[in-house]
Protein 1
Amino acid sequence: MTVTTTPRPTGHPGYSQTLPREPESAAVARKLVRTALTAWGLDELIEDATLVITELVSNAVDHGRLQSIRVVVNRPTENWVRLGVVDRSKALPMMRTDSNGDQVRGRGLVLVDAVTVRWGTDLYRWGKQVWGELKCD
């Protein structure tokens, strides 16, 4: 008798979706993240991952140039999940370190930095992808 074990999927297929650059797209992005993580058996990451994707979508909505953004969820390796949002702006995101007074907005990247193991920006000639990575146990 042969016993086969199936490892958690990595690499392709990833999950991605083009969405309108509007605040309501954050809910669709969270659903995409939940779907991917559930398919990969990584339910323990859902809470942190949905927070990260919400903040990344919010930044793209505020600072993007065109009418759409692209949400990307993939597993570059067995131990990492990468959540990204692509937009057509070349403006680099800046993490606010000031208290920002009484404003509620403007601290998204501080949250991304606190929740992810690492995050960054990949520049393209036509725009960028801002991403955050979570480690799988």
Protein 2
Amino acid sequence: MKTNKLAIMAVLLFAMMFSAKVKAQTNAQILYDFGSDRKYVTLTLEMFKQDNWGSTYFFVDHDFNYDKMVEGSKNVAQGGTYTEISRALNFWKNSSMKNWSLHVEYNGGITKNYPINNAWLFGVEYFMHDKSFKNVLTLEALYKTIRETDSNVPMQFTAVWTCNDIFGVKGLKFDGFADFWWETHFVADDNAKSRDAHTVFITEPQLWYNVGQHIGCDNLSIGGEVELSNNFGSTDGFKCRPCLGVKWDF
């Protein structure tokens, strides 16, 4: 437990230094996953920054699930890490094509037992918003190549959204993403019956309320997310994994 706390403190300190330097939208989330096959803590570091040539986004997930990976072990270290980093390129912001951007992305990670195959994605994205920019939606169509993995169609479709002050409640935010892609991979059900799956779907809608606004600390929010997935990872079929936690905006 002490090792976990030190790791979390070190990562949070790094995120604070990074956000101060680049003046980006950076946050850290600590979520407990109540999924029947999970029941562990995940630390997520997330950053989004716009500039004159487009925008940069990344997140890193650290799963503190070592005891889930190695039978009889104690949860004293990260059991897995996963990251995504993407770049949107837009040199035509003053034209009629201003809502369209080129998109390049890298995904990859590792767990205690196996690596997550590197993936590269290239394509386009389309950005939509209301007049206030409180509600935004980005749609992406991407060519996806996954190392040492076959797919019937090498494509991924993604939607990313953010809705602020929903239902007229100041500080109540609804955001998240949804991904669908083709990938031939091994999956197993709860009875260890295995098969090959060819498509993957995952969405993680989040709901956060800024409780800090009531105590003079606008950085603090409480809330959580629900992971809804089908054939994600090595899990066969549909899964619903609710999470609760806290978020700190730097």
Protein 3
Amino acid sequence: MTRYLLKRLAGALLVMLVLSVVIYALFYLAPGDPARLACGERCSPQQVAQVREQLGLGDSVYAQYAHFLQGIFAGRDYSTGTAALHCDAPCLGFSYQTDQQVTQLILERLPATASLAFGAMAICLLIGVGSGLLSALRRGGFTERALTVLTLAGTGTPVFILGLLLLMVVCAYLQWLPFPSYIPLSDNPEQWAWNMLLPWLTLGFFESAKYARLTRSSTLETLAEDHIRTFRAYGVGERTVVTRHALRGAVPPVIALSAMDLGTMMGGAVLTESLFNIPGLGKTLIDGVRDVDLPVVVGVVLVIGAAVVLANVVADLLYAAADRRVALL
């Protein structure tokens, strides 16, 4: 197991290094002048030249990327013309719009995204695994057909349409909940939970369809195996066969997929955060693109990519823990 872990961590480091090269090249080496973006359209050519020198854009491409990596691992100094401004590691630069460290901005927005992702994943697993297991046990009946229709509707409905429908029905028509406005968990936990309920349901129900289909197919495949028929022949109860044996075979792929999806949700909930005005990483990315704030865009994309890579490592480890045969490969 230790060897398996080291191999996965080494692979993850290599992927993250390649990811950093691609992201840096995509944003900083693309057509355009980062110095002009940082300074603004009203800057004179002399001011743009001064900003270019402060950002170190006059160095070679390799030197610029080396400084970028140095900032992430050891911190970096930025020249202001008269003094040096230090940025502690992990340094992703300073925002062009607010002069705030990008790392600090991401850390401020990360709790909102994390709370959305974990809450949505809990609802996703509850709905998806539950409906998938029920469909497998009621195969061929009305329950299976009804759940299949619901899961297909969840897959085919865009997340922003689903969120708008929930807002109209729950908040406007039925008036069960007020229109959500994000409140930090530390300010009022109860109000935070009520305001996050609709975003959780929107993102969780949208993602639950594939878990329902995966659980159903895995459970049916396990129920058709020889050892399950042997248990039934020896008189083991159906509930015991399903909960202790059949469900165990369906759990590993669900664990692996949920770990990967959790990393994706950390940055993939852009529409949900924008719809419900949640100040998370997705909304920060949209604002950075709108304001052409390259350090913010690069920093958020890099953090999202790192979250997806680490989630894949966690998924591999959880799958290996659930199925020991994987670690031997």
Protein 4
Amino acid sequence: MKLYFIPFACSLATRIAIEEAGLDAEFVQVLTGHKLPDGSDFLSVSPMGYVPALETRSGITLTEGPAVLQYLADNAADGVLAPALFSEDRYRMQLWLNFISTEVHKAVFAPLFAKDAGEAEKAAALGRVAKPFGVLSAHLDGREYLGESFTVADAYLLAVLNWCETAGVDIAGWPVLLAYRTRLRTRPSVVRAMAVEMPLLKAA
């Protein structure tokens, strides 16, 4: 497998999942201007220019974070990254993957980081934080993870919550989410993934 990533982008969730499951993968950093280290254009891999993009063992290229994460879950040992196929817990995990993607990542953080977003658009994005963060806080209150155990949905949520300070979102206003993020940052797979990407982020 080959993972195209940007340090501390949402592709961090994919690296965490790979670390958690002990999967083999080659990592290729996407550079400024959608360039790859060999000088080629990342847009030929991912037409929207988004990470993660994953070249699978069979030779197809997957984009869109939830699809990539579910592929990894299906290629990991049973129960390591996701509940059993066709179980109610598996569908709940898919619910959270899509919730994070649409209600948090795209609705809130994408406009806050967009270079072409105006002040009104950014203010509107900040105004949308409370509802999804409230839903997540209520669900995680008294829980260690989004489900019964750690899954790729937790890896994705952590990657997104890591952006709060940079994006101007005061996570301290949601103590449950702050505690959840703090707790997950001590998980060995997360520690390893973040340790690899932090120097790359600083050098970018």
